[in-house]
Amino acid sequence: MKVKAQISMVLNLDKCIGCHTCSVTCKQTWTNRPGAEYMWFNNVETRPGVGYPKKWEDESHYKGGWKLNRKGKLELRAGSKLNKVALAKIFYNPDMPNLDDYYEPWTYDYQTLFGKESKHQPVARAKSQITGEYMDLTNGPNWDDDLAGSDRSFGEDPNMQSIESDIKGNFERTFMMYLPRLCEHCLNAACVASCPSGAMYKRDEDGIVLVDQERCRGWRFCMTGCPYKKVYFNWNTNKAEKCTFCYPRIEEGLPTVCSETCVGRIRYIGVILYDADRVAEACEEPDDTKLYEAQLGLFLDPNDPEIVEQALADGVDMETIRCAQKSPIYKMAVEQKIAFPLHPEYRTMPMVWYVPPLSPIMNYFEGKNSIKYPEMIFPAINEMRIPVEYLANLLSGGNTEVIKSALYKLAMMRLYMRAKTSGKDFDP
Ligand code: SF4
Ligand code: SF4
Q: For a FRET experiment, which of 76, 103, 422, 427 has its CA 20 to 30 Å from that of 45?
């Protein structure tokens, strides 16, 4: 066993209101400069939706390039346009996202808007702030909010295809939710593995994944390698950039900017101890639906004296161990099992985890759409507006049972809190 410490985050999706405060404060801190206009180290996606960059979950969209195999190692995708000859040509990397896949910042052609008289309402065209050209706006932050229920929003989201037919024509059952996203600071980081310059690295002390700007040569294989598409290319410096988990703040004992400014208070930060010797073995789990549990099995109890002794022997300092003992991450992920990794089937062992959202009950108990008694919870979970299958596709590699169990606990907690705040008895 080799004990390592990893900083990580849990986001409670039940509380995200999609306000983008996190995205904006992150942008003001980290990417408010030339070359970084289109970068959002933190973004908030509407779900179901195409995401940012467009269709990032759709492997066929970024066909070719790298993928992690069942052993958690990088290999070229079947049919990839990349080959050894291509690798020799440094910039032949055709399958990374391009600017059209991101929503670039736009402004309006104000001369059209204000410069001439018209009896009609003036209609300004959007102009790219980067190229200055007129844009055909077909994507933007939370564009999908307005498309809920349309063929377009479902058709472009691979997660929706299995349940699309159930929902089409049944407007009452359409749903949406928000998914804030940042770099996952993965235990088995594909960006690090795919960087030919050794510029991308994972810090030993806390697992934060960073780009050494001095060493980056602009190959951009990290962009194709990262399945979450969370590395960006700065056109001004010709270097890769990504979320830094606000490491200068973390080193001063402060939370990340996105966490500190989150309006919904949905973000929890903490350290978790894990067995680094077993990461490769966990990645080899052949069954996608068991990858969540394989990753869970890596986490170690920070209050176990034997683990503490081993951690100290492996170079983890006592302050970090104390952080792990107080951390909410172990409690939510391991003890309560209410937090889940985003797309564990990508096999990078992501370390930003999510509490799935509760949603209203559809067609349940003759029109009653809220859970009033504990015995209502289990049957109600299958009737929740956001389908359990959808959440399982996002958060557990398709394992619906673990999601149902978490929703049960969350609903029970809500009943308990309601009873407590109204001074009533609670009898589960
Ligand atoms: Fe690297 Fe992507 Fe994982 Fe972040 S999410 S550590 S950029 S592979
Ligand atoms: Fe959601 Fe918090 Fe970001 Fe607002 S600030 S979008 S509530 S994560």
A: 76
